[in-house]
Every structure is written in structure tokens, then in C-alpha cells.
Give the backbone structure.
Amino acid sequence: MWLLYIRSNFPIKTTHTTFRFLSTALAHEPQQSFSSSSNDTVSSNNLHTFHVLQTLNRFRNHPSLALSFFNQVKRKGFVHNVSTYAAFVRILCYWKLDRRLDSLFLELIAVSKEYPSFEINELFETLLEEANYVNNNHSHYLVKAFDGFVKTCVSVGMFDEAIDFLFRNRRRGIVPNILTCNFLINQLVENGKVDMALAIYKQLKRLGLSPNCYTYAIVVKAQCKKGDMEGAAHVFDEMEEARVTPNLYCYSAYIEGLCNNHSSYLGYEVLQACRRDNVLLEVYPYTVVIRGFCNEKKLDEAERVLLDMETQGLVPDVYVYSALIHGYCKSHNLLKALALHNDMISRGIKTNCVIASHILHCLGQMGMTLEVVGQFKELKESGMFLDEIVYNIVFDALCKLGKVDDAMEMVKDMKANNMVLDIKHYTTLISGYCLQGKLTSAFSMFEEMREKGFTPDVVTYNVLASGLSRNGHACEAINLLEYMESQGVNPNTTTHKMIIEGLCCAGKVVEAEAYFNSLEAKSIEIYSAMVTGYCEADLIDKSYELFLTLSNQGIIAKEASCFKLLSKLCMIGDTNRAVEFLERMLLLNVEPSKIMYSKVLAALCQAGNMKQARSSFDFFVERGFTPDVVTYTIMINSYCRMNCLQEAHDLFQDMKSRGIKPDVITYTVLLDGNLKANLKRHFFHRHREGDNIATFDFSNIWRDMKQMEISPDVVSYTVLIDGQIKIENFQDAIILFDEMIKKGLEPDTVTYTALISGFCKKGHMEKAVMLLNEMSSKGMTPDLHVISALKRGIVKARKVQFLK
């Protein structure tokens, strides 16, 4: 703590002191009150001031009476002045009525704004002069008043006034409390005025003030917000020189700064170093490291920190879980996010609307709009408080489902809960009406938003421009841009992009081209919008030509546009141009995404061009592409469909050698391919002896699958059952069927169809009917294959019976 420069108690109770105080106050009474223009009023008011001061002095040991009297005379029309305010400030300071003092200073700030002739500085001049009449040991109220006023200014964002007041009175010998300085510097940092905060810190040090550990921690935070991690580390050197021991707050600020500046590994190292130095760590530093790793999409590391934290005996709180859940939601790993949420609930930690918003937003981003609405209803029924952010997420989901009327009903619910719509809510609802083509309703909502005092921003205008364009209103979209500019809002790249793509979606390609050509400065985003627009209008040739024109100039369209065009090429089976597309990207040192590689390979496989698929696969791998289990499975499946089992098995081994674990689908594809090959071999052995069909023992695949601890699913068992039935191995088929049920897997329609068809073919109609009844009891409806098999089986059975 700073040593106070002036120390004083309340004025000593003597008539001499009282009258000296009153004479000083009257000497500072202005010749004209700031609220009156009459000299008669002034003299009357002067006399009244004398009595007010006298009464306040009498009530100095009874603060509640002083407060009541102060407010009472104000209600009766007395206009308080510098003298009466000063007297009342002294009482509040003496009795440490800080909240009352804050309210009074807020009132003084309002008065000074309404009546410029009232100078707050005069009030403090009066307090300072009064303090000089008594012993310095009795003027502690003076410093308290000065500190209180600085804090009040800071709390209402009057930073310049607070700083000016602080340094002006420092020159008069008033030394501010270190807590006040900390409050000022911290609020400057929190409000983004980092450079100003650091300048104040340096100036205060020059004036001889000694920072404490909290001051240093705030400065560490400031340096980190600037991104100056070296400067933040230097603060610890300053602390060492000043012989101030860093506390947990200092270390936490530094760790958080490192994590916020994408150095979470280093932040974690600092945390571990603190632990080795026996610094008593709490949950918060672990929370910021976990949040840092999540923001850097290093979720495995975040979970390791969680485990480390728990081994140290610390219990993760809602903020730890919120950070992890948010991280997995941003990565669209919804299953993991929900698992963490369930774990949190099982530990007795209550969820909140922030976590709910993360999960609902993730559902929406993944296109699971119905689930968003369903989850919202469940959360609401549970009694959880849901804020405006959650409501906006649900508005968006309902609008995408075409249920804007339901969203409008929810608006009533919001208002009933004293929630106020903001510009984001209005923009979402406007977007919903635009998606439905209800442009009149969209513009009505736009007008309502303006009437409520909201100024539409570029996002709102973009939504309207997109709505007009997608509904084919080119002229109206252009007119909206002109109106938008007249309101001081300039169209941005997104505006132009939405108009071009929207017009193309509406089939107004000529208008889109005209708008595109009218733009003088065309960025890569604008060209990309045209590439996408042509795709939306199914003009693939034009889109590809524009892509080639750009690539010939060394420019590649934005990733989303490239993906759109490539998807269209793959969809129409134009594999030559799809391969060329990727080669162009690679020539310009633009790395295609993994899904782009996979799409091209899948298209080649779909076309049955396995030679080109394998050639492209090897080329892509050489260029750094790491195929995943899906890509391998697609290619293995294509080889199996073409009876190229050797190539399929070679690719399967290549997959495992790269450390990529096959999944249940991969094994099922291999099983299906080999069983079908076995069926052909069985057929040829019976009818065309001498032909050789390459096959592999499917039992080895089945065994390998179990060794890899991959559990077969219903499809896997069905493939095996069907394969055994087709080679008339009914006993093994039944064994597999029973094994499947024992493992808790429920046979589906395909499984029953395979068995029933097999039994009917062999004339085992009783078993077939029994399975049919079992199937029906489970709510499954027999399809045409089952019915046809039964008819054939019945006919065959009758023929056999007739022959007998």
C-alpha cells in the first residue's frame, strides 16, 4: 500500500474550527448561483448555505441524518453548491460510505455537464484548502475523496478526465492509493486502451509510486494484449529488481497471455514450472491453457491438460468443460462434445446457456436444424435460462426450415421474458423471410427494426440484397445498394458476391454477368462468386472456362468456389477435367483439400476407371496427400466390384502399412467382394470346370477384423449370411444369425430377406414362414423381394408335392 501524503481525521469538535470551516466555505460561495440569475436570490441562498453547512456539521456523527437532511433540502428547492457538496463529501468519506460517495460523484458529474459554470475542480480545491486548516493527520478523507472520484470517472468511461484529475492533484501533493491506480490501469486495458495504460504505469513509476504485485500482473496482461510477449516477460525482471514476489495472479496473467497469442504449449510449460516451484495453483490457469489448446484446435493436448489437472487433485469446473465442449463443437465433433457434456452433468456440474449455445450452434452448422429446435424445446422444458444468443440460433434453424411464423411466435416468448430483440435477431428473421421469398414481410421487418432505433449494418443490407437477387429482382437489388450508400453504409465484397450468386441461382445469369462487368475493381472474391454462380446455374462449361482464365493468370478462385466447381465436374462424370482441375491447383502451389482429392478419386472409381484412379492416387500421395480410411475404402470397393481382388488386397495392405486403421465398412467391403468371388468360383466349378477365379479366404478377413478389435455390425453379418446362403451353406448362415443376435445386434429387413429367400429356394417353407412371422412381429414390412421369394417357394413346393 502507498503511504498517504495527507493523514487527517474528522475536524475537531470546537466552535473555533467550525466557524473557520464555515467562513472558508462562504468565502468560496460564488457571487451568483449556477442555477439563479437574481442577486436577491443569491443573498438569500448564501444565508441558506450557512444554515445548511451548520446543520451538516451538527450531523457529522450521524451520517444517516446528514444524508436525509442533504436530500431533504434538495427536494425543497435548495440548490447545493461547492460548499455544501464539500461538507457532505467529508461526512461520507469519514464514515466510509463508498457506495453513497460513488452516487454523489455521479450526481456531480451530471450537474457539471448540465451547468458548465459548476466546476468539480473547485470542489476539490475547497476540500484541499479545508484540509490545510487542520493537522495533516486528520485529512484522510481528502485522499479517499480523490480516489473515489477517479474510480467513478473510470467506471463511466471518462478515462481522460480521470487521468487529468489524477496527475493534476498529484502535482498538488495528493498521492493516489495504489488500488485506485490499479483500477484505472486495469480498466484501460479491459477497454482496449493498452498503450494509454502502459503510459500511465510508466508515468506513475516516474512520480515515485511503488507498484504492487497486482499492478505488475495488470501490466503483464497489457503487454500480452499487445502481443509483446518479450515485454510481458520483462515485467518479471522488474518485479525481481523491486523485490516483489510474483503471485498466482501474475503467473495466470502471463499464462493466459501466452495462450491467447497461440503459444499454449509455452503457457503449459510455464504452468508446470510454477507447479515445480510450489506455486499454489488453482483451476483458472489450467482453464486458460485448455481454452488455448482448444482455440488452436489441439484438442488431444487440451484433454491431456484436463487429465493432468485432475491428477493434481483439482476438480474441473463449468468453465473447463465449456472450453472443451466449445472446442469440439467448432471442430464439428458433436459426439465428443455431447460425451463431455454428459460427463459434466454426471459430476453434478450444472450446464448453462453458454454451453447450450455451443451445442445448438454446432448442430445448426452441421445442418441438423430439426435437432436444434428439438434440443431447444427440451432445454426450455428443463427450466434452464436461455439467453438472446440461444434464441437467435433457434430463429436461424426455424428460418432455414421455412418456419418463420414459428420464429415470430418465439419472439413473443422472448418479450414475455423481458428480452429485447437486437440487430442480429432482426437480421436473422429478415433472412428467413427472404429464404421463403416473402420479400414484403422482410422489408416490413426491416422497417420495424429501424423504428426500434436500430441502424441497419452491412450484414442486414447484404441479407436483403441476397433475398432480392435470389428471387430474380435485379433492379431492386441495385436500387437497394444506392439506398444503402445514401445511409452511409458502403457495399462490401460480400454484397457483390451475394448479388452475383443470387441472380445466378434465380436463373438471371445475363443480369449477373452485367452486374459483374459493371464492377470496376474486381477482387478474387468477385471472380470466385462468378465461378460459383455459373455452377448454381448449371453452366459448368462457363464456370470451368473462367477458372482456366484465372489459373492462366496465376490466380486460383477461393476454396469454396473451387470445391463447388470440382463437385459439379465429379457429379457429371467429367473426370478428365476434374483431374486437370487438381493438377492446375498443384501447379500454382495451391494445396487442394483432402475432400477434393477424395472426390476426384471417388468419381474415377464410380466411372470404373481404376487404372486412372490408381495412377492419380499414387500421384496425389507423392504430392503430400494423406488418404484417409474413407478414400481407401472407396477404392477397395471399386476394385472388388470389378473383381480385381488382388489389387483390393494390395491396397488394403498399403493402408495398414501407412498406419491407417481399417474400419468396419472397409472390412465389410472386402468380405462382400470375396464372398461374391467365392460364389462365382462355386458356380464355375459346377458348370465350367477349368476356369480360374482369383479369391481369398474370407475367414482370414473375418479373423483379422476381430484381431483389430473391430466389432462387426448388422451389415457385416448380413453380408456373411447372404454369402453362405448363396453357396447353400445354410448351417453356417444360421450360426452367424444366432451369433449376431447374441451380440445384441438387431437383424434388419435385408438380413431377414437373405435368409427367407435362401430357405424358399431350398424349399424349407416352414422355416421361411417362421422368419417372416418373426420379421413382422418386429414391425418390419416384407418387401417385394421377400414376397417374390415366398411365391416362388410356394410354387416350387406345390410342384414337388404334385410330383409325389
About this structure: Residues 1-47, 800-804 have pLDDT under 50 and may be disordered.
